[in-house]
Amino acid sequence: MKNKLFLIIIPIFTVFLSGCGGGGGGGGKSPLSRTVTVKGRVVAPYCSDSQFASRLIESADGLDLDGIPLATATITIEGTNLSTATDSMGNFTLTKVPMNRDLVLTAVKGGLVLYKGLPPLSADHTVNINYETTTAYLYYKNITDKMPQDATIEWLEDGMTERLFGTLRNAANEFRRLAQQYGAGESNIPPHLHTDFTSRIDPSVDALPPYLENLTFTPNTITGGQTLSVTATVFDISNIKSMSLTLQNKDDTAEYWEWTVGNQPRTVSISGTPQISTQGNTHVVVLTKTIPETFPSGTYFVNSLSISDEQGNYARYTGSETTELSGSWYEFRDLSNLTITAAETDTTPPELISATLNGNSLATEDDSITLTIVARDSQGELTNLSVSFDTPAGGSSGYYYSSVNYDSGTGNYTYDVIFEGHGFNKSGTGTCYIKDIYIQDTAGNVLHDEPQGLDFEVTVPQVTQTTSDITLESFFVSKKYSASTPVIEVYLTASYSGTSDTIYAGGALGTNSSGNLTYLKGGSWSTNLMYDSITGKWEGSTTVYLNDFQSGKNITLYQLQLNDMKGSRYYRCYYAGECNSVFIQELSLPAHTKADSTSPALTSFSFSPSIILRGENLDITLTAAEGGAGLKDIYLFLNCSGCSGKNYYSIYIDRFTYAGGGVWQASFSMPFPSRIATGTWQFYLVKLTDFADNSYTYDQSELGEFTSGITSFTVID
Questions:
Q1: Is the separation of the CB atoms in 274 and 289 below 8 Å?
Q2: Cβ neighbours of residue 138 closer than 8 Å, sequence gap 6 or more
Q3: Nearest Cα to 109, choosing from 93, 85, 78?
Q4: How confident is the model at residue 18, as a pLDDT?
Q5: How far apart are CA 405 and CA 417, in angstroms?
Q6: Is the model's pLDDT at 224 over the cut of 80?
Q7: How far apart are CA 47 and CA 175, in angstroms?
Q8: Mean pLDDT for the stretch of residues 541-556
Q9: What is the DSSP letter of 238?
Q10: d(Cα 105, Cα 460) in Å, to the nearest integer?
Q11: 553: how many CB neighbours lie within 10 A of its CB?
Q12: Mind giving me the DSSP string for 363-415?
């Protein structure tokens, strides 16, 4: 298959990068009398002529950002004598097109040849012919001789080749960007950049991610203490390097997450060096893991699965259609679930043996202090540790660890939390207090401790918080490749007069509607800028994955932070004038069939009981009209306005389980009696957000309309 892919891509670049003159033709005879009309438009890759740059930024009606309309091209249908020519905007119409047969449309102009494959038509049809449809058709043609019984032309309509022509689009986008920056034509691009560009489109290099064909668990019902085997069948033209996955308990959607306090979702993480057997381009990848005896019973789904090959390409999958992990995009697949039955029941939290600091001050950025925590568990194993502390400036921060050293002789687990001086060069000077220690075991039990006397002094020289050395000059947003899920590429340039050799950029995308800029949820991104010695500028790019309900919007820059490790400069485009000096190229996403602009609506809200003992459950039920995109997030905020002291007087609940029929439920246990304040608690607000990022927030008075004005409950000892 690797040789076939080589042959596929070579002709694609041969026809795409050739000249743009000439004519063409076709021939044959149609055997069918029943016909339809096919209309369409031909868009060709940009030609390297004197109008390249102006065409790139032109906004005239009809200009496609993926190329330019191909005028006077000859359009034919293979196997027929039908023929026509495109007009000045690349449009064409073919009448008397045969029905009920596969169709291959060809657009020819000089040395440029483009294709479009269609399944049998039963009605008039409108098509686009471009380099993506050409890639898809050539790919289809090359695989039909390998597995003709499976290859059907309908594949071309199912996005089967998105990974392949995604690679080509990346190359085209890069070429366009360089031409925009350095002027029309290949010859104007600096040689070192042109070399880098050509290496990216080298057809001998595998740029395609692995493709998961199947995933199985053996056994798929397992008891704690047994060994689980995970087998993945993967297609890739390169060798597979690694695989890892995380399974999550389905019941955890009903658990709460209360700011820094709460139960982590019960998960099974499986990684390590896999066993791999390969036959041709098919790889069987196997990972094993022994499930702890006390691991909680339940049904576990694949929350995330990552596979990478030896060329550095990777793919991510999830078994949940509603999964969003750290702003990354995961392709949904209908993956198997795993059922776990605990061999032993464990309800005892871990035991803290000791917590000590090996020093009492951080004076320079090179200094460090280690907090050593020793703990044990009577039945199971320890997993997660988190430590929170108060900084000298009065803020709160934390360190989170999942790895631990285990001593089988003593049964103790030892965690080393390292505080480094360079991490406190913006914290202020003074005393830093260790505030909370949380340790979780494999059964989900949590130890919480508030240590006394664990503190150290910070006298690290503080760095400047802001800088004017960095200036953002341009910001581009472009569509990386067409898919049901929009994939956005961000590219930015900046000038810098400082002395640092590292510049970090992080920000968020927004949507622009008639000058009204709003934050786009899921549009956060970050990248490191690299210095270009030719231009003297700093450049960076990254990819942002959006869901397919976010189409039909103008995507632009919302906010940006540039940091040279000594200070930061902020651009907040939602403030008038703050981004006026920056050249910003927006992206208009076409409306998708799933596009939704209707906010979700609350139709009922209730809770019980009205008086609750700490440690008992508060039950919440709400019903929401989900709209077209479906409800994604429920965010509920409680506060105790009359409470004071060290105890918590605010709680966030964002884990609800779906009961069907638009009904969502949460059962919240008032945790840690020493931390939750007694008194009268208010339902301060409820925010509903759907998958199209439409949201609506109900305040206390609006919630009262569903509860006869009762929006509070009382917590007692």
A1: no
A2: 8, 11, 12, 115
A3: 85
A4: 39
A5: 12
A6: yes
A7: 11
A8: 76
A9: S
A10: 69
A11: 25
A12: -STT-EEEEEEEEE-SSS-EEEEEEEEE-TTS-EEEEEE---EEETTTTEEEE
> How far are the Cα atoms of 224, 371, 380, 450 from residue 376, in angstroms, in the given order?
20, 17, 9, 17
DSSP 499: S
Residues 28-46 pLDDT 10s = 333 334 788 999 988 876 5
Residue 152 confidence class, pLDDT cut points 50, 70, 90: low
Cα angle, residue 51 at apex, residues 47 and 52 outer, rounded to 5°: 50
Structure tokens at 21: 């003159």
Which residue has 């003074």 as its token pair?
A: 430
The order of strands in the sheet holding 412-420 is: 351-357, 368-376, 412-420, 405-407
Q: Which pair of tokens denotes residue 455?
A: 């503190």
**Residue 415 and residue 434 in contact, taking contact as beta carbons nearer than 8 Å:** no
How far apart, in Å, do the first and last CA atoms of the chain sit? 69
Give the HSE-up count for residue 696: Cα atoms under 13 Å, Cβ half-sphere: 15
Residues 6+ apart with CB under 8 A from 301: 247, 248, 250, 319, 320, 335, 337, 338
Ranges 10-14, 277-281, 298-302, 416-420: which has the least confidence:
10-14
Tokens read off for 487:
């994939």
**Angle 354-356-361 from CA coordinates, rounded to 5°:** 170
The answer to whether the peptide bond before residue 274 is cis (omega within 30 degrees of 0) is no
Task: Measure the CA angle with vertex 164, ends 159 and 168; round to 5°.
Answer: 120
In the chain, DSSP finds a helix count (H) and a strand count (E) of 6, 48
Neighbours of 6 (CB within 10 A): 12
* Residues with Cβ within 8 Å of residue 707, at least 6 apart in sequence: 605, 606, 607
How distant, in Å, are the alpha carbons of 72, 97, 401, 514, 571 from that of 575? 47, 55, 38, 15, 9
What local confidence, expressed as pLDDT, does residue 690 receive?
80
- The reported pTM is 0.47
Q: pLDDT tens, 400-457?
A: 555 678 898 899 999 998 898 888 887 788 999 898 888 888 777 778 888 888 999 9
- The two three-digit tokens of residue 673, written as one number: 């009696």
Q: How many CA atoms lie within 13 A of 486 on its CB side?
A: 29
User: At which residue do the structure tokens 């596009």 appear?
Assistant: 595
Give the residue among 175, 50, 26 at the shortest CA–CA distance from 105.
26
For the chain, give the mean pLDDT: 75
* Portion of the chain with pLDDT greater than 70, in percent: 70
Spell 478-511 as b/e; 16+ CB within 10 A means b. Answer: bbbbbbebbbbbbbbbbebeeeeeebbbbbbbbb
The amino acid at residue 415 is Y
Rounded mean pLDDT of 558-569? Answer: 87
Three-class secondary structure of residue 187 per DSSP:
helix
Q: At what angle do helices 162-182 and 191-200 cross, to 10 degrees?
A: 170
Exposed/middle/buried for residue 664 (C-beta within 10 Å: 0-12, 13-18, 19+): buried
- List pLDDT tens digits, range 585-644: 888 776 665 667 788 899 999 999 988 886 678 889 999 886 666 777 788 888 887 665
Give yes or no for a contact between 427 and 365, defined as CB atoms under 8 angstroms apart: no
What average pLDDT score do residues 325-352 get?
Answer: 75
- β partners of residue 230: 217, 287
Confidence band of 241 (pLDDT split at 50, 70, 90): very high
Residues 6+ apart with CB under 8 A from 347: 443, 445
Q: Contact 447/349 with Cβ under 8 angstroms?
A: yes
